[in-house]
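LOG
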Amino acid sequence: MAITKVWIEEGCIVCNACEAECPDVFHVTEESCHIKGDSRKDGRESENRDEKAELKADLQSSLEASIVAAAAACPVEVIKYDQVASADAPGSAEPAAAPAVIASPAPVAVAPEGAPTAAPAVDADIENAVDAALGTTGNTAAPVPAPSAAPRPVAAATPPDPPAANPAKPRVTKVWIEDGCIVCNACEADSPEVFHVTETTCMIKPGVRLDGKESENRVEKNGLKPEDGERLITSIITASKGCPVDVIKYEVLGDAPVVEAKPHDAAEVAAGPFVLDYKAAPNRQVVMPKTVPLPSLHTYQEEQKAAVAADGAKWAKQQADFETAKAKALAEGKDAPKPPVRAVPKKNENDMEFPAPSEAKDPDLLHLTDLLDGKVSQAFEQSGELILQVHPDGLIETLMFCKGDASLRYEMLVDQTATHYPAAEGFAFSVVYQLISISRHKRLRVRVLVKEGQDLESAVEIYPSANWMEREIYDMFGIRFTGHPDMTRILCPEDWEGHPLRKEYPTLGWGQRDIDFREDRSGVLMRMALEKAGNMGINLKVPKAD
């Protein structure tokens, strides 16, 4: 079979379904669908509605299947075509021969021994069917083979069973959205080819509908395209079961596949003591620092060296490329290219300067570096602040010098805090002591880097104000201070799980008590978020009857 002509009737909705099926023939524009010029004998591109130009001979058979598929997929049935039996002679194609139908053989009677055998009678209808299949006429007699001397009994043949028809695959015929959508976006996440969530409701996309419209499909109940309903049946059912308010409805032709319900469809687990694997929970896996880099003079100096090296490598490459181009130009007798010019840093016209760290010049930092004798890892100034970073074993000695040395006299510890750096190398926390000299009107920041599970010595005996601040650091970060008079939590209850200011601590769920979710959109989304995080019932203890 072959298709000689194809054209587009009026009423095209430019849904692009035909071009998706057969891009070699159809071209969808903003207003209609055209038959491409390179597929037509006249070379023009139009709907081919008036001229009815024929397709090129080499495309009439090769594109037959895709043209038929495009016409079947057209939701408004505007694609028409002429189909003939053979593409070689489109004007006078002969109809294909009907398939030969051979009847079941009649029972053969067995002649008695010694009796003369006669030629078996052949039914005229069977002869005609066989002649038609072989291309012969009814007048041509076919030679009949002589029977054997001792014919064997032949049982009567039973007609063969008709071939079983292939059962149609199950598919979704219709899908629509009832009232009450909370635009939670769960359906679009499960089946983005079918559902489109807007600001107010959920729509059924036009690409999968027969009418090519986009709406909730609540009133029209328009059907889905058969191929899409079959291909997307699992995702549609998954989206319907995953809808928290059960507004997605559908009709299925055939046996629907079994799809497991979403977690929030299952019955909620009764609240009770909950033990969570703190390290294996997915919402506690930290892969990035999530904080700015640790302010450091050494880090800044390494970054500057790397930037200078990168600029030098770039300049060296420019010079090498110039020499190569120059040699090539001289070999070809052309003018040499202009030599490269090294870029000059642009002048910063802003009145703000980057607060880069610099070498320590303040006498307090220099004096402490001399007193501690190798226990200082870094001492630098940044934005007018003095930073002294010491090793953990020299922390208490540093604080004693800061308070007791006559030339320093940092009498007060005004603040003590910590920061979590989960992706850092060699340490996990930075503990900072903010000291102030009231008599000298100066401030000093003492910093120490702590590894995971490492304890620090308490500074309560030197600065009594460290008592509650060290308890808060323990409560929020889990860093213990040896020698503290009361190393207990200060903000959370004693039976609290985890430390809230660590980066792996979840932002949802922990500490929720007797949650009464609202029935509106916010309440449903909050319940889904908490169940997804796996934190329902954490830190909630149910009292037991005595």
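LOG (cont.) second protein
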Amino acid sequence: MMKQIKRAALMSRVSSDEQALGYSLGVQKENLLSHCKRNDLEVVYEFREDHSAKNFNRPAFNEFLNYLTKNKGKIDVLLFTSWDRFSRNLMDAFNMLDKLKKLGVTVCAIEQPIDLSVPENLLMLAMYLAMPEIDNSRRSIKIRGGLRAALKAGRWPFNAPLGYRNVKDEKNKTNIVHTKDAPHIKIAFEKCSTGTTQVELLSFLKKKGIRISRSNLSSLLRNKVYAGFIAIPELDDEQADTIKGLHEPIITEALFNKVQKLLGDNLLKKNKPNFSSKRLELPLRGNLICSKCRNHLTGSASRSQNGKLHFYYHCNACGGDRIKAETINESVIEILKSLKFKNSINNLFESILKERFKDKKIVVQSSKQNSLKRLSELNNRIIKLQDMLADGNITSDEFREMKKRYADEKNKIEETIKTDDGIDIDTNQKLLKGLKALSRLDILYRDASLVNKQKIIGSIFPEKLFFAKKKCRTTRINEVVRLGLLTDKGFRRNKFKIISQKLVLSGQVENTGVEPVTSCMPCKRSSQLS
């Protein structure tokens, strides 16, 4: 009976760092072929690898697995020189051995042969596989320690970022120095600080012969190395830190910080949801409630067939109210237009404002007098210091230290005086402008920003508004406003009081809810706004 010839696959592997240590794919192949010849093995598949064996995510090995899957039974054994050629990870290696076994392939290291059919030999296999993993871990610790030591020393041990190149000093220590691209990198930071977009920066750098992706440009603009700093990451019980590097910076720290602030602001804008409750067409959103269910009304726009947007206030809770925003907005403006204040109220406001500004003026003048007095004292002390230095009573170091302290205080006082002088204490123009706005609330409201529109409505109508039967209503208006409005007669309970054609206060009792009405309960006034 003829002896069956086994079919073998040969694997040679060497990583890039191992090549530098003298490992050879050719020597491995030669040893494997000699083994096959001595043992009558037929070589039907052969592959080489130049990837690390820390895992099996290796292109050539994956191609081998695909071949096995499609050609099951055509390979009996996978040969390699030693177990560290197969894997440097214990758990991954055992999992792969099991996978290959299911595909009908046994595994053998010709320099470290093990009969895997004997259970006790698995212990020896574990030792062969664990030793490379331990070696990898130890090497990794040494490398991380060396890199961290370099970072702490202020040196950059990694591949140089754009605008720099790696060099070694006279002590064979790694660092980075500028390249011809450094000036262009500096200009890119300067452009970014003035609001130039990253798309424009990419175009600028491309014209200068620098090709960089948008994501890499974003990382570049956030890299502290360009400002002369080295970032030390957190490790175990050591906190992250940033130190001054030994390399020459391309940009100043102030420019770097300015760019970071701008990038941070842009990121906030970018991450801000597209939806916003701040719409100029819906200034009353947040101040309106549904006339049916008393929930807040929201607002949105509907697009007509011609593409025009039409805004509505509507209730999402019950769907009861849906009113054109323009209708309610104009109604509120007409109400504000009808609000007129008594002359006595205008005079009272004018007196109050004048008194407030008068008090402020007294405080400012008093503060300025005290500041000028302190400035005079500091000048005299500096003169005395000069005399003491000339007489030899103090050293030059003492003189500089005390003079600096006095000079710093002088600068702060002078800044305060300058600020006080900039305060406009002429109140006549401000008073006239304020009183004019008070007498023309509708104009003030129309010209106001969205935020100020909401403040005006909220201050006059502290309770929510609702729209029913083509009329805006609210439970009450600001008491000061109500008392200051032009009226013919005083308020009387259970009588309608006409303040204007647009605003009616009545003695109508509001819905009391679950609380029963008693004879001693005060009658709530309701504002009816037509």
